[in-house]
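In this section we walk through a basic example: taking a raw amino acid sequence and producing a predicted 3D structure, encoded as discrete structure tokens. The instruction is simple. Fold the sequence below.
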Amino acid sequence: MKSNVSRRHFLGAAGISAASLGAVSAMAAEGTATDSKLKIVAVACSLRQGKTTAQGLSFCLQAAKEVAPDRIEIELIELAGLKIPAELALGMPLEEGQTDDFPSVAEKLADPAVGAILIGSPVYFSNMTALCKAFIDRCGMFRMKNFALSGKVAGVLSVGGARSGGQEVVIQSIQAALFCHEMIVVGDGRPTSRFGACLWNQGDDVSNDEIGVSAAKNLGRHVAEVALARHASA
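The resulting token sequence is shown next.
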């Protein structure tokens, strides 16, 4: 079946308006400000706001902040409740009345002060959430706009309903997309040095998962250390 989605539509898309693309470009053109604070942003791709994925990423962010409290700023973005239409990544038009919240998220990620991005997703049938996939597909606009995420450090976290509940599959799937942006993808670092942080959801709470929480903190610390090293050498 022949697609009726043109290359022009696809390239115009990846799901952000022309005005927003201009804003992202302007921010990227400012370059990195080595005399300013380094920002680390975490994106929770759970459909449930304030639940275990956000909780796990909070452990990451706090550990990252502790690496250099006077130099690092942190922010958690929760996609729960936001509208991120995946069809815009293909240049398909929105339906009448349909909203799109991705541009506001994209502006935050494009901030030149952002040196690292953490992404977290629950495990849904051994893969990331549909919301996470829509977010990743829409991030294609960064690649089309001179690889705007290139050189930023990235780490991935996943939460599952069992100790071996598919978390590593989700982490690797997200990491594969991040490699396409020329991001510096890191794991949780020493002493374990795994793919990322795998947390076990026990009764809507991951705080009792000592192994997972430790991995999340290690991931945040490692991401911060690598991002700071790059920030200093910029």
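Looking at the output, two observations stand out. The beta strands are 38-44, 72-78, 114-122, 153-160, 184-185, 197-200. The first strand starts at residue 38 and ends at 44. In the next section we compare this with other chains.
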